[in-house]
Batch of 2 targets.
Target 1
Amino acid sequence: MITPRPWLSRIQPYRPGTHAPSPDGSLASNETPLGASPHVARALAEAAAGAHHYPDPLAGELRAELARLHGADPDQILVGNGSDELIYLLAWAYLAHGGHAVCADPAYRMDEISSQVVNARLTKVPLRDWTHDLDAMAGVEADIAYVVNPHNPTGTVLPRTGVERFAAASRARLVVVDEAYIDFTDDPDATTAMPLARDGRAAVLRTFSKVHGLAGLRVGYLVAAPEIIATLRSIRAPFSVSGLAQAAALAALRDHGHRRAVREHAREQRDALTGLLTRAGYEVIPSQANFVLVRTPDERRMVERLAAHGVAVRPGTGLGVPGSVRMSVPSARGMELLEKALA
Ligand SMILES: *Cc1c(COP(=O)(O)O)cnc(C)c1O
């Protein structure tokens, strides 16, 4: 009987967030309650007519639009089947067979799992005041240093100056900054590490799953030095991003109004959610993402009580922060469910 490579047995599989009976109560996966831009449905219907064609392997049109948006060269951009695919590609290219990665503890789970898949060494540096301990991380001689900004599962944000100093000081050969939640920060333009990605000092990961509301279609992208993009291109599955996903991402990208609406909604509801939880006596970690991390002495009881009121949240234990619960910003109806559950 064949057996898997021995290091694979250590992997704790990724556990997705659960769903509540209603979408309004589903607060476990950081999806926007506003959904995708209305233009997406039209783009999908049009693209469906071409379902018998293989997709453009390099998502040329989308890549060109992203290049314009970020002031980068198209050769600095790789579109993937969600950021998850790109995280795996980075691990295969730069961590397999004896590589070393450094990340925060708790980390974004995919950064951990991808390292374990290729049997890389992984150094986890505990957070300090709920944010990355960049000084301690900089001293680790690694192939890749992962920075998640804002961080998941805490929602805390690092200033660009901090990330810039880290990129200069880090002993890692590549700094990867995952900006899945950057749109929800107070000042995305001043916070993003995109200027570093443009001139090759870091690699930046973005996703269409959060502010664009396309989590179900799987599109993310990496902005990095052309050599890195060329390497990842040479090892990827050529048709990993479907034509429907590419069309939807283009439509979403062009709807600036919807993006703004999702951002504003998340920020308002985040403040309301933080207020509600604080008044109920909980400690809430200050977040600039579309979720908050709530501290609770009895995580399981809180998860069960919310579930009994039709609200699904993410238990902190599965995210590496026992004694906590992570909640995505809800719709107005979701907020009412929460209010009743906490009363
Ligand atoms: C949600 C999230 C992503 C998005 O992953 P996709 O594969 O693009 O859906 C990436 N990084 C972090 C830290 C996230 O929380």
Target 2
Amino acid sequence: MTLMSREAAALMGTYARQPVEFVAGEGAWLTAADGRTYLDFLSGLAVTSLGHAHPAVTAAVSAQVRRLVHTSNLFYTEPQVELAERLQETLGWSDGRVFFANSGAEANEGALKLARRHGKRQHPDKVGVVALEGSFHGRTLATLAATGNPAKHEPFEPLGGWVTHVGHDDPEALDAAVDDRTSAVIMEAVQGEGGVRVVPDAVWQAARSACDRTGALLIADEVQTGLGRLGAWYGWQQTRASGGRAEPIVPDVVTLAKALANGLPIGAVVARGDASKAFGPGDHATTFGGGPVVCRAAIAVLRTIADEGLVDRARALGAELTARLRALADVSPMVAGVRGRGLLQALLLDRPVAGAVTAAALAHGLVVNAVAPDAVRVAPPLIITDADLDELAARLGAALDDVLAEAS
Ligand SMILES: *Cc1c(COP(=O)(O)O)cnc(C)c1O
């Protein structure tokens, strides 16, 4: 029996998988079971930002696995505290506190519960949430409710009616949606799953002032955008307050997951000021969260990003990536544009063939993904070289040629 038919018989049908079995990886390259190598410009959905099998992560994990894997949060463990301290350094927050979870959805679930706890201290009905259309915040019932995608809601309704969605580029609608009963506004800097759409500064400005006006918390979902991917440690740091001032718009809460442990499961909620004290003992908990192994991995990730200057590198590579993707317009008439920021970008097509282009790219040994019917997401590791960008352009160009040839 093939692996595909065993999978179909043994696993729930939640994933439309590509027909490749990967068995190993190193840096920006993956190796399949048949020995073929693939250039990974997706990083397991913006997760393996340091590339596969990064030696610093491997060493940190192996050493910790030999020492101690799990104790539960009934006891103190040093890696969890060190990671929380380091995260606050990357945020530049001296009054921040962290809760560790196991995934992006769990991080957002924790942030939404934190906002509710914080809101209910002001008024018993201060439990509403305002989120953006096109957003993605996770698949638990609460984070699904916050996710601004009606097609994902429909099979699981009713979801409670406590979330209001407004357009991702409509500051007036956002301002109007936030009132005294709003506990939080949650948003991404760039909507990753929503098609790699940049949320404009005006929307961040409206969110900050609406939260200041009503006592709601501004939650930045940095699960996909955080930790250098956009060419800054965090996407919110690239936002700008109104009036041409140079300062960014600072959220009250930041959620993290994907790249934090370079592939091991971890999530984090970081809150500052009052919000950082909204949970007391028993308000929220997790058995696995903040375990020593994932925390050691995440410490190695943060250290490597800082030591190797990968944030600046992502910014420089991002400009180069935009140029390479734009140049594909000279190769293929289907290329309609490029959007995104840093190393989270999408190649826009003039027709809904992103799935076919992704499949053709795979056949040419390139891993990317169709993030919308007409958009191919490109999210390479932060360690790629110019030679990798040459390969991307060549392989994606060949894939575009194949799809165009099939269509005509
Ligand atoms: C991936 C993602 C999530 C969900 O993370 P999981 O680890 O899959 O639960 C939440 N928010 C954003 C912005 C994401 O990209």
